[in-house]
Specification:
By secondary structure, the chain is mainly β. The protein contains four helices and 29 strands. It has one domain: Neuraminidase (6 Propeller). About 5% of the residues have low confidence.
């Protein structure tokens, strides 16, 4: 006998699809016709629809991409579409989260010296938008949009075993900024960054727009720092163990406001969002009555240009690099979409000076030009041999940067 519920279920599915289509159309109409400045409509449309572009040709890479003096740029892989977040194992294998594909893959280390991974294989699939990755005492940790999971991982063989278990399964993932980034600090705690659900609002879930920490088994969870709209990249400086995090500022305040940020994260400190941005500037949409929040907001350690979208952050730790990189972090600027003139689309080096100042300089450029967008740098990781891996989740390329004098 036919199930009487089927016609109703089909009708509900059609209505849901129609509602989704209307939301996409409304969003596009707001961007195209509303107050948002869009410098590259194709990038915006591809982002909304989850589309990627073809990897650049060898000729495009050679003619357009420029790496800093003393380094050589190589195309390590074009076999991982939507490659988002990288992690290098102690053995030299590269683990990559394909966030929009809901899976994690492993690129086997280049043991034959041909400049490419020996193989690419799937480690995990059917995940919930995996992003952050971390290794600790035989476990591979994965930050999903709704929690944190882990699975046994053998660093020598690069194989997982046993069941994937969730140590956190109640993170909210509605609205904007659903990725979760992971990192183990020098204190042995697992740190988790969670972006906001909105552009500028008061969150209902106090864990949004924060960096949290917990024990490796998920216990003793606590909010570590607040007022962080979307801190995607986080890492600890090797010379003093301080935690730094990139920060994506809000939209809809024009081309040049507010600056994106690098913040020095300290426990129980508040970093301004949604009341303050930059060096103590009150947000015009926050309204009055927030003097106390503004007074305690911590100014950024470094300001990027507005809408550059800093994502991946990695301090360089290996000593075989060219001179001038002993106190340096690399940051991937994913690039603007809501700006009349596109900006970002590169990797920059941040150099800590003896007096504490941070100086920004270009490290890898050429992803945007008169010919269009070649890609969007997303994540950065350094291997035990000093090789620097840079993922491009738009063109599906993984680049490797090595000293020019090395292999």
């Amino acid at each position: 006998m036919p199930d009487a519920r089927l016609p109703h279920m089909k009708k509900l599915l059609v209505l849901l699809l129609l509602a989704f289509a209307l939301l996409v159309v409304a969003g596009l109409g707001y961007v195209w016709l509303g107050p948002v400045q869009v410098g590259n409509k194709k990038v915006m449309l591809d982002f909304l629809l989850g589309r990627s572009i073809e990897p650049p040709t060898a000729e495009q890479v050679a003619s357009r991409l420029v790496v800093a003096n003393g380094f050589r740029l190589e195309v390590y892989s074009t076999d991982v579409p939507l490659a988002r977040w990288p992690l290098v194992t102690p053995a030299g294998d590269l683990i990559v989260a394909r966030t929009r594909a809901d899976e994690v893959v492993l690129l086997e280390r280049d043991s034959n010296g041909d400049g490419k991974p020996d193989a690419v294989r799937k480690l995990l699939d059917k995940l919930n938008h995996p992003h952050g990755l971390a290794l600790r005492e035989g476990w591979l940790y994965v930050g999903e949009s709704n929690g944190v999971g882990r699975i046994r991982f053998d660093e020598d063989s690069g194989q997982v075993s046993g069941a994937f278990e969730h140590i956190v399964d109640d993170f909210t993932n509605d609205g904007f900024h659903t990725t979760k980034t992971l990192g183990f600090g020098p204190d042995g705690w697992l740190y988790v960054s969670q972006g906001s659900s909105c552009n500028a609002c008061i969150e209902q879930d106090e864990r949004r727009a924060t960096i949290m920490r917990m024990q490796p088994d998920g216990s003793q969870r606590e909010i570590y720092a607040t007022g962080l709209r979307n801190s995607v990249g986080l890492d600890w400086s090797p010379w003093d163990g301080a935690l730094y995090a990139t920060e994506n500022g809000r939209d809809l305040l024009g081309d040049d406001l507010p600056p994106d940020e690098l913040n020095r994260i300290e426990q129980n400190h508040f970093y301004g969002w949604p009341f303050v941005y930059g060096a103590g500037v009150s947000d015009p949409d926050a309204g009055s009555g927030h003097a106390a929040e503004a007074a305690r907001a911590i100014a950024p350690a470094h300001a990027f240009r507005a809408h550059n979208a800093p994502l991946g952050l990695a301090f360089l730790r290996v000593s075989n690099l060219p001179a001038g990189y002993s106190r340096t972090a690399l940051v991937a600027l994913h690039g603007s979409w809501n700006r009349s003139q596109p900006d970002g689309y590169k990797v920059v080096a941040l150099d800590w000076q003896p007096d504490g100042r941070i100086v920004e300089r270009d490290f890898l450029t050429g992803f945007i030009g008169d010919e269009g967008v070649l890609g969007r740098p997303a994540g950065i990781a350094q291997g035990p041999d000093g090789a620097i891996f840079i993922t491009d989740d738009y063109a599906g390329v993984i680049y490797r940067v090595v000293p020019a004098s090395g292999r």
